[in-house]
Amino acid sequence: MSNLMSLSIRTLIYGSVIFSAILVSGVAVNYALAGSPDAENESVAVEDVEAKNQAAVDAGEITQEQADERLEAWKKDQAEGLKAREDFRRITLEDVEARLKAGVDAGGLTQEQADERLEAWKKDQAEGLKAREDVRKIDIEDVQAEIQAVVESGKITQEQADEKLAWLEANEDSSWKDVVADSR
Questions:
Q1: Spatial separation of the C-alpha atoms in residues 40 and 42, rounded to whole Å
Q2: What is the distance between the alpha carbons of residues 39 and 31, in angstroms, rounded to a whole number?
Q3: 116-138 burial, b for 16+ CB within 10 Å, e for fewer?
Q4: Fewer CB atoms < 10 Å away: N or C end of the chain?
């Protein structure tokens, strides 16, 4: 009886180890297909994704057609990720929506998860824009104070200061440090 009990326990342990391994690999594939930052890492090879998908097909978890769809979605996501890494500042709302849709289509994300990620991205963008505007206001005030100090020291005239401030207002993307440095 104890031999049977020992064999049953051993079988349960082996079964739970195998189940855990399958679960972890399934989560990893879903995470990669969902467009996670780690999926953009070049260390994830196509062969790895193909092997994981094939393992899922062999285990009967997904069909070959689903595996092919997931692989194509992963490849598309990688291409988009490469494009985004080339110039991360050009990520648009359409880019984010397309990546999330690819994740949903590939089965790596639910529509609810995609919607949550989209809303979080929009919130981050709005907060970032507000922070940049706040910094811009502070910077212009600092520049005005520094230029006024240079005027008071007699190094430039008020007319020159007004020209520099007008130029700064017209060229918002320029560095205010260049304007102040020219005044010294």
A1: 6
A2: 8
A3: ebbeebeeeeeeeeeeeeeeeee
A4: N
Task: Give the global pTM.
Answer: 0.29
pLDDT, averaged across the chain: 75
Amino acid in position 182? D
CA torsion angle 88 98 108 105 (round to 10): -160
Domain boundaries, the chain: 1-109, 111-184
What is the C-alpha to C-alpha distance for residues 38 and 35, in angstroms, rounded to an integer? 8
For residues 30 and 105, give the distance between their C-alpha atoms in angstroms, rounded to a whole number: 12
pLDDT for residue 65: 92
Q: Cα–Cα distance between 27 and 21 in angstroms, integer?
A: 10
Whether 64 contacts 57, CB under 8 Å: yes
Distance CA 125, CA 90 (A): 12
State the Cα–Cα distance between residues 104 and 34, nearest whole angstrom. 8
Read off the pLDDT of residues 8-41 as tens digits, 9 standing for 90 and up: 777 878 777 787 777 767 666 666 566 544 444 4
* pLDDT category of residue 53 using cuts at 50, 70 and 90: confident
